[in-house]
Amino acid sequence: MFDLKQFIENCKGKPASAVKDLIQGALRDPAAVSAAIDAEFAGRDLSKAGIADLIFFRSPTLTVLKAATPPKFKTPPHNHNMWAVIGTYDGQEDNTFYRRGERGLEKAGGKDLKTGDVVVLGEDAIHAIANPLDRPSCAIHIYGGDLLNFSNRSVWNPFTFEEHPYDIKLITNYARELMAGAQS
Q1: What is the CATH number of domain 4-183?
Q2: Which of 12, 29, 55, 131 has its CA at 20 to 30 Å from residue 180's CA atom?
Q3: SS3 70
Q4: Contact 158, 120 (CB under 8 A)
């Protein structure tokens, strides 16, 4: 049985590689991870929840949260400026990776995470995520810092790859444009 509080304690002070091992062990039973996380939110209406409402733990050196990605949702490229470990426990999260190139942002591969899959993002990673499914996708995200400290983070226009300071409203607008384009 997955114990969320113990998992968070075990992550404290650990590098990304050790956190990856912890979440991989937990995801041997994705249903148990899902049940523990669902129990944490029991009785709460998350239909209009923001990212801050989905955080289990936050400190200057660690953030642990539930990432609930709506059907067909897409984000623009963005960075975190800290390592991240993502473990999908229900559904699918497709990651497209980017790097800074001579002519701006360039695609640099990707990784599709299905239930039970884990990926580690380095401190300099730039990525965009998408849920290709017709149902929500859920993952546990662990960051090596305070995710809500937006200073020095960036978001890129997904159409021109122009870099902007990280702004949640800008990300929301770009996500809407990406999803509208996918439907036409």
Answers
A1: 2.60.120.10
A2: 55
A3: coil
A4: no
Digit-coded pLDDT (tens) for 8-40: 999 999 999 999 999 999 999 999 999 999 998
Predicted local distance difference test score (pLDDT) of residue 41? 81
SS3 of residue 181 by DSSP: helix
Chain centroid to Cα 20, Å, comes to: 14
Domain ranges of the chain: 4-183
At residue 22, φ and ψ (nearest 5 deg) are -65, -45
Q: Residue 151, Cβ neighbours under 10 Å: how many?
A: 8
Q: Which residue has the tokens 């937990």?
A: 26
175: left (phi > 0), else alpha (psi -120 to 50), else beta? alpha
Q: Is 125 helix (H, G, I), strand (E, B) or coil?
A: coil
E strand map for 30-134: 55-59, 62-69, 78-79, 84-90, 92-101, 104-114, 118-121, 126-130
**Has residue 52 got a pLDDT over 70?**
no
- Whole-angstrom CA distances from 159 to 10, 74, 156, 178, 183 are 40, 13, 9, 9, 16
Token pair for 160: 């021109």
DSSP, collapsed to helix, strand or coil, labels residue 85 as: strand
